[in-house]
Amino acid sequence: MIRVFADLERLSQAAAELIAGRAQLAIEQRGRFCMALSGGSTPRSTYQQLAQPLLRDRVPWSRVHLFWGDERCVAENDPRSNLGMARKALLDQVPLTPEQIHPMACANDPWTAAAAYQRLLEEFFSPGEIRFDLVLLGLGEDGHTASLLPNTPAPQENRRLVTAVQTSREDFARLTLTIPAINLARLVVFLVSGQRKAEILHQVLRGPQGQYPAQLVAPGKGEILWLVDSDAAGQ
């Protein structure tokens, strides 16, 4: 399903309301709400909306657990850090304990860090299936989502739930959930904003399949929802 909004503010408000509603529903049905966060400017606006009193007070935060869909292996105070962004926009504004926040911790060896995060997921969800209630994703201009970058092995990884990614174009590694982990989610929500995303959004949704990592997202037992603003939906 695709929902189009007039601008980023309305998109972010709708996304925040959706998260609050899904949190309430998951807690009523299963006793907790587990969400994987995304990085980037569009999610930041959503987190800021979610931290506002009207929505913040609707969420039973004591039953919420937050994970990450991907992370850059940089310091938390680096502006590229997804954890650092989320902490400023949301985590420091709501009543969460450290035990409810499960960031991807990049060690010296990103592959060791990826394996450690997979163990964390396995232990947290044990003995059940590793299944997030909601995975929040963005869309890169090259068609990537999370850190499933084109021309790397990451999009095709089908054994691991978490993997490391390194390219020659960046001086840091990344950690990311893989397609199998994302596709186990009950709900996957893409947030896409801005005219610069119009062409790739068109290609991902209307072009030939199999060309871009984002096209691999297809939750088998869940739902997928695209929330886009009018600029991104221009094509």
Would you kindly provide a written description of the structure presented here, covering whatever features stand out?
This protein is of the alpha/beta class. It has one domain: Rossmann fold (3-Layer(aba) Sandwich), CATH 3.40.50. The chain is 31% helix and 18% strand. The protein has helices at residues 8-30, 41-50, 53-56, 82-89, 110-125, 179-182, 198-206; strands spanning 2-5, 33-37, 64-68, 70-72, 134-137, 162-165, 174-177, 187-192, 223-229. It has a 6-stranded parallel sheet with strand order 1-9-8-5-2-3. The chain has a 3-stranded antiparallel sheet with strand order 4-7-6. A hairpin with an 8-residue loop joins strand 6 and strand 7. Helix 1 packs across helix 2 (41-50). The longest helix has 23 residues, at 8-30. It is globular and about 40 Å long. It starts with a strand and ends in a 6-residue tail after the last strand. The model has no long low-confidence stretch (mean pLDDT 96).
